[in-house]
Amino acid sequence: MPSRAETPHRSTPERRRRKPIDQMSPREIVLSEERVKLSETIRIDQIVPEFDLIDDVHADELGANMQLDDDGQLSRIVVRARFDEQGSRGRIVYDVIDGFHRTEGKRRTGDEEIDAEVLYGRSDEELFDQRILAASSVRAVQFPRIAEWVSKSYASTKFAKKKIPVERAFYIVAHGTRRPQGLQLSEKELDELYEYVQKKCGKWGRSISVVSDILQTVANADPKLVRKVRDKGGGKDRTGQITPERLKVVVNAFPGKENYGIQNALLEMILEYRMFSTSARLFIEDLLGKVNPKMSENQVIEIARSIFPTHLQAEERRNEKKKASRLTLADIDSPDDEVELPRASAQGSTEKKHETLYSSTSPTKRPPRDVNTNLALALENPQTIEELQWQIEGLKARIAELETSGNDPWWRGASYLSRQEQLFIERVMFKAEDIHEVGREFNLNTDQVMRVMISAFSKRRLHLEGLED
User: Fold this and answer.
1) 284 Cβ neighbours under 8 A, 6+ residues apart
2) Could you state, in order of their start, the residue ranges of all structural domains in the chain?
3) How far apart are CA 35 and CA 408, in angstroms?
4) When comparing pLDDT for 266 and 279, which is higher?
5) Cα pseudo-dihedral 384, 389, 391, 396, rounded to 10
6) Taking residues 200-221, what's their average pLDDT?
7) Quick one: pLDDT at residue 173?
8) What would the pLDDT profile of 119-131 be if each residue is shown by its tens digit?
9) pLDDT higher than 70, residue 110
10) Beta strands 36-43 and 113-120: pairing type?
11) Distance CA 95, CA 125 (A)
12) How far is the CA of 407 from the CAs of 173, 176, 399, 403, 420, in angstroms?
């Protein structure tokens, strides 16, 4: 490779014509500004680390598996090549797009190199778009990743330059606001904002309302807490982690920088007593008016501990009332009268005669992944756990379709739906609350909650067909 003194300055077209891509060094390719993707083996110490966005358990498992497996690393990570902060005089570094945990796993086991697909000529906005798309690969760290990358992607827009906070921009579109207070936006600029948010969420495969909800929480939360959020998933125990639901409950009650101390203190209590978000919400309601931002974290914890026994007694009374008037399976309208819902025994297990309904070995064929097919599937009777997952995707796709079309959420005013059907769609699909915890409030398992929502969509379809007639 020629030295800098031997390499005369050339314009971009001249540099591009100098030699074929496969004969160029990474530095030369970055300088050429060519948009190419190459399979390479790169040094791990040149990869920009993102330690706060790593699930330690998952990284350790991957590192150990790659060492034990004869084939080692089965799939390449995806990175973007660029110059470091010193620009063209600096060294080449790589930003991870997909493969944070494989990279960290290799780093922890002492490996110096890793196989990668290297993207050249990509902008920061493209980098964050690709990262958000890939964020679903590890559910545990989706929340902090999406929160950070959506904000960074938005930072380069003209709306950010107009001092419109990212959470405000997405809130405006999520709620269909046409006259946002305090913002000097013309009709054309407002239309451009709507187009930007809708286009981005479509590209990311994320619901506008879900992204907006994440951003509202993040805007009012201690950044240190946000980066500690770990979602439930992958079969791992998350009861001792700050989940998105727990953070949201605390931040909604005590928002803003002045309440960071209270947020930290209450989440410490919630984790110590292993409270789910529903129980945490009731606990915080008992605390309102008893703590304030002037208190130290220790003072907040002391007050919280003092009322905890009273809170437990009150929660027991609420649970007794709930049991007396809880929703039973007989109250649930099945989308198919011939389909019998599985009955949970006193120990919470499902009767054996129904176990074939959820057998993961049942022969199934995955349908195309377009919105209409997914919605149609969501209205059918599930035969496997995998089909239930497709149903969730179908329902989410339908919600996203309604949001981007600008229509009001139809279930809120649908008199033909039961209150439970409206409630489940509102909380699980629209507000993205944890389906397990919502079901637990009604003594229902996940499958049963799904069937209630499927019933709602069946009724919606019949209602619309009746209007057409």
Assistant:
1) 249, 250, 253, 254, 266
2) 4-122, 124-219, 239-325, 335-468
3) 42
4) 266
5) 170
6) 90
7) 92
8) 999 999 899 888 8
9) yes
10) antiparallel
11) 13
12) 12, 9, 10, 6, 22
- As given in the structure block, the two tokens for residue 86 are 């010193």
H/E/C letters for each residue in 26-78? HHHHHHHCCCEEEEEEEEHHHECCCHHHCCHHHHHHHHHHHHHCCCCCCCCEE
Instruction: Tell me the two tokens of residue 322.
Output: 């709930």
**At a CB cut-off of 8 Å and minimum separation 6, what does 148 contact?**
53, 227
Q: What are phi and psi of 361, to 5 degrees?
A: -100, -5
Q: What is the CA radius of gyration of the chain?
A: 26
Amino acid type, 301: I
Nearest to 394 by CA among 467, 461, 466: 461
Whether 165 shows a pLDDT value over 80: the answer reads yes
Q: Is the distance from CB of 116 to CB of 40 less than 8 angstroms?
A: yes
d(CA 99, CA 53): 12
How far is the C-alpha of 116 from the C-alpha of 44, rounded, in Å? 10
Tokens 């358990």 -> residue: 57
Residues 250 and 279: beta-carbon distance below 8 Å: no
- Say which CATH topology domain 4-122 has: 3.90.1530
Residue type at position 382: P
DSSP, collapsed to helix, strand or coil, labels residue 369 as coil
Helix then strand then coil, % of the chain, to nearest 5: 60, 5, 35
Identity (one letter) of the amino acid at 332?
I
| CB hemisphere CA count around 287 (13 angstroms) | 30
Please state, in angstroms and rounded to a whole number, the distance separating the CA atoms of residues 9 and 314: 76
Is residue 357 classed as helix, strand or coil in its secondary structure?
helix
Reported as a single tens digit per residue, the pLDDT across 302-358 is 998 888 877 776 666 666 665 555 444 444 444 433 333 333 333 333 333 333 222
